[in-house]
Amino acid sequence: MKITSGSFKQSLLSDTPPDGFSVYLKALWYERKGQWSKAHNLVDSLEEKNAARVHAYLHRREGDLSNARYWYGKAGVAWPEQSMDREWEELVIHFTENG
Known about the structure:
The chain is mostly helical. It has one domain. It is globular, with a radius of gyration of 13 Å. Helices cover 66% and strands 0% of the residues. α2 runs parallel beside α4 (49-62) and α4 (49-62) packs antiparallel against α5 (65-75). The chain starts with a helix and ends with a helix.
């Protein structure tokens, strides 16, 4: 079954993320459930740009803006102009549509 942004959001009603979520979706899932450390631990040791992108978002959400800037740079993306919630939405859409 394909994961959509809608099914991802619906899964937030559960106590655990469903099987089949990428590490990036799991990190976004845990962050939205208020488990920042668990989300961070999922991407902290990963090197690819997708992990850096989620890592940057997490540090921005945390309020550690200098660390977030570093990770946005590693991800090769500009500092987001949108709200935190809109950034989360865009990340969910990106990772549900692109795996």
